[in-house]
Amino acid sequence: MKYILILLITALLSASDLFAQNIDRIIAEVEKNNTTLIALRKDADAELIGNKTGLYLKNPEFAFNYLWGSPANIGKRKDISILQSFDFPTAYGYRNHISEYRNIQVELEYEKQQRSIISQTRLVCNGLIYLNAMRAELAKRTENARKLADSYKTRYNIGEAGLIDYNKAQINLLKTIKDEESNEIEINALLAELKNLNGGIAVEFADSVFQLQNFTDDFEQWYVQSEQNNPVLQWLKQEVSISRKNEKLNTAMSFPKLQAGYMSEEVVGQQYQGITFGLSIPLLENKNAVKYARAKTAAIESVEADTKLQFYNNLKALHTKAISLQNSVNDYQLNLQKYDNSGLLHKALDKGELSLAEYLFELSLYYEIIDRLLVLKKSLGDTVIELNRYQ
Questions:
Q1: Within a 13 Å sphere around the CA of 67, how many CA atoms are in the beta-carbon half?
Q2: d(CA 191, CA 197)
Q3: Residue of higher predicted confidence among 362 and 207
Q4: d(CA 375, CA 121)
Q5: Is the pLDDT of residue 21 over 90?
Q6: Are the CB atoms for 254 and 290 separated by under 8 Å?
Q7: What's the CATH code of the domain at 133?
């Protein structure tokens, strides 16, 4: 018996590992074929280029003047000027840093959407595992109900059973058949959703064994890793850095701007040429810009702290829920093995120790426990998927 139990556990572990590989294969396909991710990648690539614009010197200015003199004997005048404007030198460094931070944010935003679609795919697969497990369970129930209905039909025809029991057996069969049909409808709906996630390419998924859910009891250590991998928190971190650089950029923009270039003036018999310098002193143009940038930084830091707190509390609640669900699953499985009366019920019915109504009632209690166990396993799987989104 011990040897059989070891073989059973080994088989379950192997099946769980195999199904995990199947899900990983589907995830890889979805990452390659999902049309939303394809569109987001193209948009991200465009944004990466866009964030590198506006970092360089302004366009140089060229001017040419051709002036007629009056009276005509004074001749004509020709002016040529080429000017280049410069912001305060440190402004270019700050703009470049902001561009780099923005590009990091673009990748983080893409990663956020990618993780969301992967998590959605895992949830769909977990739902299909539940429905496939129910399909197998309902098939056994229908087979049992059909044998029972056939038996009572035979007994009714030979006068050994009454019409009420005959009808009960037929209704019981009808119920299990309709339960199977409803389950198939839900399976097809999730397969359609999985097909949509996979860019319209159909996916076969017949797994019916829930994966073993592994998560550490040490929440704090586990949370640190999740925080580092959370693209939303990392995006906000970059936003704080951008805001701080904006403070420095606005400070640099409040310094004078420079102009330098070449200028030539030609009149009859005379020509002047040389270099020219200019200075633009900002008085009112950037008023309150630095003050606004500092207020914006404080606001973003507050949003970052609030988001981090909400993320922590949400994961803590999910972690607590996962532990409770795991304990419930283990308790259900242990007691279901100890107190399984399904075989005894059928024998008692055959021996006349139970009426058909009593048999169906007792059997429904057993089925209810099976259903609850499968629902708990699905809920546990959904919770752990959400819990491990950033692992």
A1: 15
A2: 10
A3: 207
A4: 19
A5: no
A6: yes
A7: 1.20.1600.10
Mean confidence (pLDDT) of the chain: 86
> 277 in a domain, yes or no?
no
Residues in a beta bridge with 77:
67
Matching residue, tokens 């049909």? 181
Q: What proportions of the chain, in percent to the nearest 5, are helix, strand and coil? A: 70, 10, 20
**121 Cβ contact partners less than 8 Å away, ≥ 6 residues apart:** 26, 27, 30, 194, 197
280 occurs within a structural domain: no
| Torsion of the alpha carbons at 116, 119, 121 and 126, rounded to the nearest 10 | -160
Q: Is residue 352 part of a domain?
A: yes
Cβ contact 368:336 at 8 Å: no
Determine which helix (DSSP H) or strand (DSSP E) holds 30, and give its type and residue range: helix 2-33
Does residue 222 contact residue 216 with C-beta atoms inside 8 Å? yes
The pTM (predicted TM-score) of the whole model is 0.83
**What single-letter amino acid sits at 68?**
W
Provide CB contacts within 8 A for 21, sequence distance 6+.
none
Residue 183 lies in a domain: yes
In the chain, the amino acid numbered 151 is S
Q: What Rg, from alpha-carbon coordinates, does the chain have?
A: 37
Beta bridge partners of 78: 66, 266
Count up the domains in the chain and report the number.
Answer: 1
- Tokens coding 332: 């259900």
In this structure, how many other beta carbons lie within 10 angstroms of the beta carbon of residue 122? 23
Q: Which range of residues forms the domain containing residue 247?
A: 2-49+93-254+288-387
Element containing residue 310 per DSSP (H, E): helix 289-338
User: Which of 46-50, 283-287, 312-316 is the least confident region?
Assistant: 283-287
Q: What is the pLDDT of residues 133-153, one digit of tens each?
A: 999 999 999 999 999 898 888
What value does the mean pLDDT take over residues 190-216?
89
